[in-house]
Protein backbone atom coordinates (compact mmCIF):
# COMPACT_ATOMS: atom_id res chain seq x y z
CA UNK A 1 0.00 0.00 0.00
CA UNK A 2 1.28 3.46 -0.95
CA UNK A 3 1.74 5.87 1.95
CA UNK A 4 1.46 9.67 1.69
CA UNK A 5 2.01 12.46 4.18
CA UNK A 6 0.23 15.73 3.49
CA UNK A 7 -0.53 19.03 5.17
CA UNK A 8 -4.20 19.13 4.24
CA UNK A 9 -6.38 16.20 3.21
CA UNK A 10 -9.74 17.12 1.68
CA UNK A 11 -12.37 14.40 1.34
CA UNK A 12 -14.91 15.38 -1.30
CA UNK A 13 -14.60 17.49 -4.45
CA UNK A 14 -17.79 19.53 -4.31
CA UNK A 15 -17.99 23.27 -3.71
CA UNK A 16 -16.63 23.17 -0.16
CA UNK A 17 -13.83 20.73 -0.79
CA UNK A 18 -12.66 22.43 -3.96
CA UNK A 19 -12.64 25.82 -2.21
CA UNK A 20 -10.37 24.45 0.51
CA UNK A 21 -8.10 22.61 -1.91
CA UNK A 22 -7.64 25.56 -4.26
CA UNK A 23 -7.09 28.07 -1.48
CA UNK A 24 -4.69 25.92 0.53
CA UNK A 25 -2.48 24.81 -2.35
CA UNK A 26 -2.15 28.33 -3.75
CA UNK A 27 -0.98 29.54 -0.35
CA UNK A 28 1.76 26.96 -0.13
CA UNK A 29 0.27 23.92 1.60
CA UNK A 30 0.72 20.35 0.39
CA UNK A 31 -2.85 19.29 -0.44
CA UNK A 32 -4.38 15.90 -1.21
CA UNK A 33 -7.94 15.66 -2.51
CA UNK A 34 -10.08 12.51 -2.50
CA UNK A 35 -13.16 12.05 -4.68
CA UNK A 36 -14.77 8.71 -5.39
CA UNK A 37 -17.58 10.15 -7.49
CA UNK A 38 -17.83 13.04 -9.93
CA UNK A 39 -15.59 16.08 -9.62
CA UNK A 40 -17.74 19.12 -8.89
CA UNK A 41 -20.05 17.24 -6.57
CA UNK A 42 -23.82 17.37 -6.47
CA UNK A 43 -24.23 20.99 -7.52
CA UNK A 44 -22.47 20.68 -10.87
CA UNK A 45 -23.68 17.22 -11.79
CA UNK A 46 -27.12 16.75 -10.22
CA UNK A 47 -28.26 19.97 -8.58
CA UNK A 48 -27.88 23.70 -9.12
CA UNK A 49 -26.40 23.66 -12.61
CA UNK A 50 -28.64 21.10 -14.36
CA UNK A 51 -31.80 22.34 -12.65
CA UNK A 52 -31.20 25.94 -13.73
CA UNK A 53 -30.47 24.77 -17.26
CA UNK A 54 -33.78 22.88 -17.40
CA UNK A 55 -35.59 25.85 -15.88
CA UNK A 56 -34.13 28.01 -18.66
CA UNK A 57 -35.53 25.64 -21.28
CA UNK A 58 -38.94 25.81 -19.65
CA UNK A 59 -38.75 29.61 -19.56
CA UNK A 60 -38.26 29.78 -23.34
CA UNK A 61 -41.15 27.37 -23.95
CA UNK A 62 -43.43 29.39 -21.67
CA UNK A 63 -42.53 32.69 -23.35
CA UNK A 64 -43.89 31.47 -26.69
CA UNK A 65 -47.39 31.36 -25.28
CA UNK A 66 -47.23 34.45 -23.07
CA UNK A 67 -46.77 37.30 -25.56
CA UNK A 68 -50.37 38.49 -26.04
CA UNK A 69 -50.17 41.43 -23.57
CA UNK A 70 -47.17 42.73 -25.55
CA UNK A 71 -48.83 42.43 -28.96
CA UNK A 72 -47.07 39.19 -29.79
CA UNK A 73 -49.33 36.39 -30.99
CA UNK A 74 -49.04 33.36 -28.70
CA UNK A 75 -48.09 30.06 -30.28
CA UNK A 76 -47.93 26.59 -28.84
CA UNK A 77 -44.32 25.68 -28.13
CA UNK A 78 -43.05 22.53 -29.83
CA UNK A 79 -40.88 21.00 -27.14
CA UNK A 80 -38.15 18.49 -27.89
CA UNK A 81 -37.69 17.18 -24.37
CA UNK A 82 -34.57 15.19 -25.24
CA UNK A 83 -33.00 18.31 -26.78
CA UNK A 84 -33.77 20.24 -23.59
CA UNK A 85 -31.93 17.55 -21.66
CA UNK A 86 -29.02 17.77 -24.09
CA UNK A 87 -28.89 21.49 -23.25
CA UNK A 88 -28.63 20.46 -19.60
CA UNK A 89 -25.74 18.11 -20.32
CA UNK A 90 -23.98 20.73 -22.48
CA UNK A 91 -24.23 23.22 -19.64
CA UNK A 92 -22.63 20.77 -17.22
CA UNK A 93 -19.89 19.96 -19.74
CA UNK A 94 -19.11 23.65 -20.26
CA UNK A 95 -18.65 24.31 -16.54
CA UNK A 96 -16.98 20.99 -15.67
CA UNK A 97 -13.38 21.99 -16.62
CA UNK A 98 -13.39 24.55 -13.79
CA UNK A 99 -13.91 21.71 -11.30
CA UNK A 100 -11.90 19.07 -13.15
CA UNK A 101 -9.13 16.83 -11.90
CA UNK A 102 -6.82 18.28 -14.55
CA UNK A 103 -7.33 21.84 -13.34
CA UNK A 104 -6.67 21.00 -9.71
CA UNK A 105 -3.64 18.91 -10.53
CA UNK A 106 -2.44 21.92 -12.53
CA UNK A 107 -2.75 23.99 -9.35
CA UNK A 108 -0.57 21.46 -7.55
CA UNK A 109 -3.23 19.40 -5.74
CA UNK A 110 -2.67 15.65 -5.48
CA UNK A 111 -6.01 14.19 -6.65
CA UNK A 112 -6.95 10.59 -5.84
CA UNK A 113 -10.20 9.31 -7.36
CA UNK A 114 -11.23 7.07 -4.48
CA UNK A 115 -13.54 7.32 -1.47
CA UNK A 116 -11.78 7.87 1.85
CA UNK A 117 -12.12 5.88 5.06
CA UNK A 118 -10.58 6.72 8.44
CA UNK A 119 -8.29 4.17 10.06
CA UNK A 120 -7.28 6.39 12.99
CA UNK A 121 -7.41 10.01 14.15
CA UNK A 122 -5.20 11.41 11.37
CA UNK A 123 -5.02 8.65 8.78
CA UNK A 124 -7.33 7.83 5.89
CA UNK A 125 -7.29 4.98 3.42
CA UNK A 126 -8.39 5.54 -0.17
CA UNK A 127 -8.13 2.51 -2.43
CA UNK A 128 -4.52 1.28 -2.21
CA UNK A 129 -3.28 4.54 -0.65
CA UNK A 130 -2.91 5.45 3.01
CA UNK A 131 -2.76 9.18 3.75
CA UNK A 132 -1.55 10.71 7.01
CA UNK A 133 -2.55 14.37 7.28
CA UNK A 134 -1.89 17.25 9.63
CA UNK A 135 -5.40 18.58 9.01
CA UNK A 136 -8.40 16.89 7.38
CA UNK A 137 -11.51 18.52 5.90
CA UNK A 138 -14.69 16.51 5.41
CA UNK A 139 -16.62 17.81 2.42
CA UNK A 140 -18.60 14.75 1.39
CA UNK A 141 -21.88 16.59 0.88
CA UNK A 142 -25.29 14.98 0.91
CA UNK A 143 -27.60 12.91 -1.25
CA UNK A 144 -31.37 12.77 -1.78
CA UNK A 145 -33.32 11.34 1.13
CA UNK A 146 -35.77 8.70 -0.04
CA UNK A 147 -38.43 8.14 2.65
CA UNK A 148 -39.63 4.64 3.55
CA UNK A 149 -42.96 4.93 1.74
CA UNK A 150 -44.60 1.54 1.35
CA UNK A 151 -44.08 0.18 -2.15
CA UNK A 152 -41.73 2.94 -3.30
CA UNK A 153 -38.67 0.69 -3.45
CA UNK A 154 -40.47 -1.53 -5.98
CA UNK A 155 -41.31 1.32 -8.35
CA UNK A 156 -38.94 3.15 -10.71
CA UNK A 157 -38.57 6.53 -9.08
CA UNK A 158 -36.31 9.48 -9.78
CA UNK A 159 -34.42 11.91 -7.58
CA UNK A 160 -32.35 14.93 -8.55
CA UNK A 161 -29.44 12.51 -9.10
CA UNK A 162 -31.04 10.90 -12.16
CA UNK A 163 -34.03 12.99 -13.31
CA UNK A 164 -31.72 14.93 -15.63
CA UNK A 165 -30.77 11.69 -17.40
CA UNK A 166 -34.41 11.00 -18.31
CA UNK A 167 -34.70 11.69 -22.05
CA UNK A 168 -38.35 10.79 -22.62
CA UNK A 169 -40.87 13.47 -21.67
CA UNK A 170 -43.09 12.39 -18.79
CA UNK A 171 -46.77 12.42 -19.64
CA UNK A 172 -47.68 13.13 -16.02
CA UNK A 173 -44.95 13.74 -13.43
CA UNK A 174 -45.79 13.08 -9.80
CA UNK A 175 -43.55 15.03 -7.43
CA UNK A 176 -43.37 13.97 -3.79
CA UNK A 177 -42.19 17.04 -1.88
CA UNK A 178 -43.16 20.70 -2.11
CA UNK A 179 -39.81 22.24 -1.24
CA UNK A 180 -37.47 24.17 -3.55
CA UNK A 181 -36.29 21.19 -5.63
CA UNK A 182 -39.77 19.79 -6.08
CA UNK A 183 -41.31 23.14 -7.01
CA UNK A 184 -38.54 24.14 -9.42
CA UNK A 185 -38.85 20.84 -11.25
CA UNK A 186 -42.65 21.01 -11.20
CA UNK A 187 -42.74 24.37 -12.97
CA UNK A 188 -39.98 23.46 -15.42
CA UNK A 189 -41.82 20.29 -16.45
CA UNK A 190 -45.27 21.86 -16.76
CA UNK A 191 -43.73 24.54 -19.00
CA UNK A 192 -42.14 21.80 -21.12
CA UNK A 193 -45.54 20.26 -21.74
CA UNK A 194 -45.94 17.73 -18.94
CA UNK A 195 -48.86 17.38 -16.57
CA UNK A 196 -47.54 17.78 -13.01
CA UNK A 197 -48.92 16.98 -9.57
CA UNK A 198 -47.01 17.97 -6.43
CA UNK A 199 -47.83 15.97 -3.29
CA UNK A 200 -46.71 17.67 -0.08
CA UNK A 201 -47.24 16.17 3.38
CA UNK A 202 -47.41 19.54 5.13
CA UNK A 203 -47.17 23.03 3.58
CA UNK A 204 -45.50 23.79 0.26
CA UNK A 205 -42.44 26.01 0.73
CA UNK A 206 -42.72 25.18 4.43
CA UNK A 207 -39.46 26.92 5.38
CA UNK A 208 -40.33 30.21 3.69
CA UNK A 209 -42.51 33.13 4.71
CA UNK A 210 -46.11 32.01 3.99
CA UNK A 211 -47.08 35.36 2.47
CA UNK A 212 -44.17 35.22 0.05
CA UNK A 213 -44.72 31.55 -0.72
CA UNK A 214 -48.36 32.29 -1.62
CA UNK A 215 -47.19 34.59 -4.43
CA UNK A 216 -45.26 31.76 -6.07
CA UNK A 217 -47.87 29.09 -5.43
CA UNK A 218 -50.57 31.19 -7.08
CA UNK A 219 -48.47 31.46 -10.23
CA UNK A 220 -47.60 27.77 -10.30
CA UNK A 221 -51.24 26.79 -9.98
CA UNK A 222 -52.17 29.28 -12.71
CA UNK A 223 -49.66 27.62 -15.02
CA UNK A 224 -51.25 24.23 -14.41
CA UNK A 225 -49.25 22.67 -11.59
CA UNK A 226 -51.56 20.72 -9.30
CA UNK A 227 -50.36 21.25 -5.72
CA UNK A 228 -51.86 19.08 -2.99
CA UNK A 229 -50.85 20.12 0.52
CA UNK A 230 -51.35 18.19 3.75
CA UNK A 231 -51.24 14.93 1.80
CA UNK A 232 -48.74 12.50 3.29
CA UNK A 233 -47.69 9.82 0.80
CA UNK A 234 -48.61 6.46 2.31
CA UNK A 235 -48.21 3.93 -0.46
CA UNK A 236 -46.90 3.75 -4.03
CA UNK A 237 -48.04 1.17 -6.57
CA UNK A 238 -47.53 0.60 -10.30
CA UNK A 239 -50.01 -1.03 -12.67
CA UNK A 240 -49.69 -1.19 -16.42
CA UNK A 241 -46.94 1.41 -16.50
CA UNK A 242 -48.96 3.90 -14.42
CA UNK A 243 -47.78 4.91 -10.96
CA UNK A 244 -50.21 5.72 -8.15
CA UNK A 245 -49.40 7.55 -4.92
CA UNK A 246 -51.97 6.96 -2.19
CA UNK A 247 -52.39 9.69 0.42
CA UNK A 248 -54.83 10.65 3.14
CA UNK A 249 -56.34 13.08 0.63
CA UNK A 250 -56.87 10.55 -2.12
CA UNK A 251 -54.82 8.79 -4.79
CA UNK A 252 -52.88 10.43 -7.61
CA UNK A 253 -51.78 8.59 -10.75
CA UNK A 254 -49.09 9.53 -13.24
CA UNK A 255 -46.44 8.16 -15.58
CA UNK A 256 -43.28 9.10 -13.64
CA UNK A 257 -42.43 9.93 -10.06
CA UNK A 258 -39.81 12.32 -8.64
CA UNK A 259 -38.92 12.15 -4.94
CA UNK A 260 -37.77 15.51 -3.56
CA UNK A 261 -38.30 15.50 0.20
CA UNK A 262 -34.89 16.52 1.51
CA UNK A 263 -31.25 15.56 1.81
CA UNK A 264 -29.15 13.12 3.84
CA UNK A 265 -25.53 13.79 4.80
CA UNK A 266 -22.91 11.40 3.36
CA UNK A 267 -21.23 9.96 6.44
CA UNK A 268 -21.63 6.18 6.14
CA UNK A 269 -18.43 5.37 4.20
CA UNK A 270 -16.11 7.46 6.36
CA UNK A 271 -15.72 5.14 9.38
CA UNK A 272 -15.88 8.23 11.62
CA UNK A 273 -15.75 6.17 14.80
CA UNK A 274 -12.13 5.26 14.08
CA UNK A 275 -11.22 8.94 14.17
CA UNK A 276 -13.27 9.82 17.25
CA UNK A 277 -15.67 12.00 15.24
CA UNK A 278 -19.20 12.25 16.60
CA UNK A 279 -22.17 12.41 14.25
CA UNK A 280 -25.89 11.77 14.04
CA UNK A 281 -27.79 13.01 10.97
CA UNK A 282 -24.60 14.91 10.08
CA UNK A 283 -21.13 15.47 11.53
CA UNK A 284 -21.22 17.41 14.81
CA UNK A 285 -19.28 20.68 14.57
CA UNK A 286 -18.94 23.90 16.53
CA UNK A 287 -19.21 27.37 15.08
CA UNK A 288 -15.56 26.99 14.05
CA UNK A 289 -16.63 23.94 11.94
CA UNK A 290 -14.25 21.74 13.94
CA UNK A 291 -15.39 18.21 14.74
CA UNK A 292 -14.85 16.33 18.00
CA UNK A 293 -11.48 15.37 16.52
CA UNK A 294 -9.43 18.58 16.72
CA UNK A 295 -7.54 17.71 13.54
CA UNK A 296 -10.70 17.40 11.46
CA UNK A 297 -13.12 20.01 10.11
CA UNK A 298 -16.41 19.53 8.26
CA UNK A 299 -17.84 21.92 5.65
CA UNK A 300 -20.98 22.12 3.55
CA UNK A 301 -23.91 19.74 3.77
CA UNK A 302 -22.07 17.14 5.84
CA UNK A 303 -21.67 19.75 8.61
CA UNK A 304 -25.43 19.72 9.13
CA UNK A 305 -26.12 23.40 8.61
CA UNK A 306 -27.81 25.20 5.72
CA UNK A 307 -27.52 22.98 2.66
CA UNK A 308 -26.57 25.29 -0.20
CA UNK A 309 -23.61 25.34 -2.57
CA UNK A 310 -22.70 28.89 -1.60
CA UNK A 311 -22.69 27.88 2.08
CA UNK A 312 -20.23 25.08 1.34
CA UNK A 313 -17.96 27.56 -0.44
CA UNK A 314 -18.26 29.97 2.48
CA UNK A 315 -17.41 27.19 4.93
CA UNK A 316 -14.38 26.28 2.84
CA UNK A 317 -13.10 29.84 2.98
CA UNK A 318 -13.75 29.94 6.74
CA UNK A 319 -11.67 26.89 7.66
CA UNK A 320 -8.69 28.01 5.56
CA UNK A 321 -7.85 30.58 8.23
CA UNK A 322 -7.33 28.18 11.17
CA UNK A 323 -5.87 25.40 9.03
CA UNK A 324 -3.18 27.48 7.32
CA UNK A 325 -2.55 30.30 9.78
CA UNK A 326 -3.71 28.95 13.14
CA UNK A 327 -6.09 31.90 13.51
CA UNK A 328 -9.63 31.62 14.91
CA UNK A 329 -12.61 31.79 12.55
CA UNK A 330 -16.30 31.11 12.98
CA UNK A 331 -19.05 30.47 10.44
CA UNK A 332 -22.19 32.59 10.72
CA UNK A 333 -25.65 31.74 9.43
CA UNK A 334 -27.58 34.97 9.94
CA UNK A 335 -26.28 36.51 6.69
CA UNK A 336 -26.77 33.51 4.38
CA UNK A 337 -29.25 34.08 1.54
CA UNK A 338 -31.17 31.40 -0.31
CA UNK A 339 -33.28 31.41 -3.46
CA UNK A 340 -35.87 29.19 -5.10
CA UNK A 341 -35.62 29.67 -8.88
CA UNK A 342 -39.25 29.40 -9.82
CA UNK A 343 -40.95 32.21 -11.74
CA UNK A 344 -41.49 34.36 -9.78
CA UNK A 345 -38.46 33.67 -7.64
CA UNK A 346 -38.50 33.36 -3.86
CA UNK A 347 -35.55 34.70 -1.86
CA UNK A 348 -34.67 35.07 1.81
CA UNK A 349 -31.79 36.31 3.95
CA UNK A 350 -31.71 36.53 7.73
CA UNK A 351 -34.91 36.28 9.76
CA UNK A 352 -38.39 35.87 8.30
CA UNK A 353 -41.12 38.12 9.68
CA UNK A 354 -42.38 35.38 12.02
CA UNK A 355 -38.86 34.63 13.29
CA UNK A 356 -38.13 38.31 13.80
CA UNK A 357 -41.37 38.83 15.75
CA UNK A 358 -40.56 35.89 18.00
CA UNK A 359 -37.07 37.19 18.67
CA UNK A 360 -37.59 40.96 18.82
CA UNK A 361 -41.27 41.49 19.62
CA UNK A 362 -42.42 45.12 19.60
CA UNK A 363 -38.97 46.35 18.56
CA UNK A 364 -39.54 44.98 15.07
CA UNK A 365 -40.56 47.15 12.13
CA UNK A 366 -41.55 45.51 8.86
CA UNK A 367 -40.97 47.57 5.72
CA UNK A 368 -42.92 46.59 2.62
CA UNK A 369 -43.00 47.57 -1.02
CA UNK A 370 -44.96 45.87 -3.84
CA UNK A 371 -43.71 45.08 -7.32
CA UNK A 372 -46.83 46.58 -8.88
CA UNK A 373 -45.61 50.07 -7.91
CA UNK A 374 -42.26 49.61 -9.66
CA UNK A 375 -42.10 51.12 -13.17
CA UNK A 376 -39.79 48.45 -14.64
CA UNK A 377 -42.02 45.68 -13.33
CA UNK A 378 -45.03 47.43 -14.87
CA UNK A 379 -43.27 47.76 -18.25
CA UNK A 380 -42.44 44.06 -18.28
CA UNK A 381 -45.76 42.95 -16.75
CA UNK A 382 -43.94 41.29 -13.86
CA UNK A 383 -45.94 43.01 -11.15
CA UNK A 384 -46.68 40.03 -8.91
CA UNK A 385 -44.71 40.02 -5.70
CA UNK A 386 -43.33 42.16 -2.91
CA UNK A 387 -40.38 42.76 -0.64
CA UNK A 388 -40.43 42.74 3.15
CA UNK A 389 -37.51 44.00 5.22
CA UNK A 390 -37.36 43.28 8.95
CA UNK A 391 -35.71 46.13 10.87
CA UNK A 392 -34.74 46.41 14.54
CA UNK A 393 -33.40 49.72 15.89
CA UNK A 394 -32.57 50.89 12.40
CA UNK A 395 -30.74 47.72 11.32
CA UNK A 396 -32.15 45.13 8.91
CA UNK A 397 -32.21 41.64 10.44
CA UNK A 398 -33.93 39.90 7.54
CA UNK A 399 -35.37 40.37 4.07
CA UNK A 400 -37.89 38.35 2.10
CA UNK A 401 -38.58 38.83 -1.61
CA UNK A 402 -41.08 37.12 -3.88
CA UNK A 403 -41.03 38.32 -7.46
CA UNK A 404 -39.02 38.67 -10.64
CA UNK A 405 -35.24 38.48 -10.13
CA UNK A 406 -35.64 38.08 -6.37
CA UNK A 407 -32.40 36.10 -6.37
CA UNK A 408 -30.52 39.06 -7.78
CA UNK A 409 -32.19 41.59 -5.49
CA UNK A 410 -31.51 39.63 -2.29
CA UNK A 411 -27.74 40.10 -2.71
CA UNK A 412 -27.98 43.73 -1.60
CA UNK A 413 -29.69 42.75 1.64
CA UNK A 414 -27.18 39.95 2.24
CA UNK A 415 -24.44 42.59 2.00
CA UNK A 416 -26.29 44.89 4.43
CA UNK A 417 -26.88 42.17 7.03
CA UNK A 418 -23.40 40.65 6.70
CA UNK A 419 -21.81 44.01 7.46
CA UNK A 420 -24.28 45.24 10.06
CA UNK A 421 -25.27 48.26 7.97
CA UNK A 422 -28.22 50.46 8.87
CA UNK A 423 -31.30 50.89 6.73
CA UNK A 424 -30.06 54.34 5.71
CA UNK A 425 -27.29 52.72 3.67
CA UNK A 426 -29.93 51.45 1.25
CA UNK A 427 -32.19 54.50 1.49
CA UNK A 428 -29.24 56.72 0.55
CA UNK A 429 -28.37 54.58 -2.46
CA UNK A 430 -29.21 56.05 -5.86
CA UNK A 431 -30.69 53.23 -7.94
CA UNK A 432 -30.71 53.56 -11.73
CA UNK A 433 -34.12 54.14 -13.28
CA UNK A 434 -36.00 52.13 -14.29
CA UNK A 435 -34.78 48.97 -12.57
CA UNK A 436 -36.22 46.38 -10.26
CA UNK A 437 -33.44 47.42 -7.88
CA UNK A 438 -35.54 50.48 -7.01
CA UNK A 439 -37.81 48.11 -5.08
CA UNK A 440 -35.14 47.74 -2.40
CA UNK A 441 -34.58 51.48 -2.17
CA UNK A 442 -38.29 52.20 -1.95
CA UNK A 443 -38.68 49.60 0.79
CA UNK A 444 -35.84 51.19 2.74
CA UNK A 445 -37.46 54.58 2.31
CA UNK A 446 -40.57 53.33 4.11
CA UNK A 447 -38.54 53.44 7.32
CA UNK A 448 -38.53 57.25 7.18
CA UNK A 449 -42.18 57.81 6.25
CA UNK A 450 -43.51 57.94 9.85
CA UNK A 451 -40.36 59.72 11.05
CA UNK A 452 -40.51 62.51 8.45
CA UNK A 453 -43.78 62.75 6.54
CA UNK A 454 -46.10 61.74 9.39
CA UNK A 455 -44.29 63.61 12.16
CA UNK A 456 -46.04 66.70 13.66
CA UNK A 457 -42.67 67.86 14.98
CA UNK A 458 -41.08 67.78 11.53
CA UNK A 459 -43.99 69.66 10.03
CA UNK A 460 -43.76 72.27 12.80
CA UNK A 461 -40.03 72.76 12.22
CA UNK A 462 -40.57 73.10 8.46
CA UNK A 463 -43.30 75.65 9.10
CA UNK A 464 -41.07 77.70 11.38
CA UNK A 465 -38.18 77.64 8.91
CA UNK A 466 -40.45 78.72 6.06
CA UNK A 467 -41.82 81.59 8.14
CA UNK A 468 -38.72 82.83 9.94
CA UNK A 469 -35.79 81.25 8.19
CA UNK A 470 -33.42 82.89 5.67
* The CATH fourth-level homologous superfamily of the largest domain: FAD/NAD(P)-binding domain
Based on DSSP secondary structure assignment, what is the total number of beta strands? 21
Biggest sheet layout = 7 strands, mixed
Overall pLDDT, averaged?
Answer: 96
Which structural class is indicated by helix and strand composition? alpha/beta
Number of helices: 15
- Show unreliable segments: none
What portion of the residues fall into strands of 2 or more residues?
15-25%
> Architecture of the largest domain in CATH?
3-Layer(bba) Sandwich
User: What's the CATH class of the largest domain, please?
Assistant: Alpha Beta
Task: Tell me what you see in this structure.
This protein is α/β, with parallel strands linked by helices and 470 residues long. It has three domains: 2-39 and 100-144 and 264-325, FAD/NAD(P)-binding domain (3-Layer(bba) Sandwich), CATH 3.50.50; 152-261, FAD/NAD(P)-binding domain (3-Layer(bba) Sandwich), CATH 3.50.50; 337-453, Enolase-like, domain 1. Helices cover 33% and strands 24% of the residues. The strands form five sheets. Strands 1, 2, 3, 4, 5, 6 and 16 form a seven-stranded mixed β-sheet that branches. Strand 8 (172-176), helix 6 (180-191) and strand 9 form a beta-alpha-beta unit. Helix 1 runs parallel beside helix 8, helix 3 (48-63) crosses helix 4 (81-95) and helix 3 (48-63) runs parallel beside helix 6 (180-191). The chain is globular and about 90 Å long.
Amino acid sequence: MQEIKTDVLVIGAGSGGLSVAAGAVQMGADVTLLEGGEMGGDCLNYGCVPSKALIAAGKHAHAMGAGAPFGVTPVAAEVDYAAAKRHVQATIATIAPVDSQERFEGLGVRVIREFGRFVDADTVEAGDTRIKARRIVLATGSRPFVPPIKGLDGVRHYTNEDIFELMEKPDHLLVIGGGPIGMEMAQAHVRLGCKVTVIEGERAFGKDDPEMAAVVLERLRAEGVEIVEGAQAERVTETGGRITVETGKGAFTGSHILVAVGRKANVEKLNLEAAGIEYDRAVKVGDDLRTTNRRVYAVGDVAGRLQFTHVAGYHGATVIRPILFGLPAKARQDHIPWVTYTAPELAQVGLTEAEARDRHGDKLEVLRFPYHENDRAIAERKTEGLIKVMVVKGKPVGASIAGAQAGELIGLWALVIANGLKIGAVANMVAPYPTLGEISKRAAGQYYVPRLFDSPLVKRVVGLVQRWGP
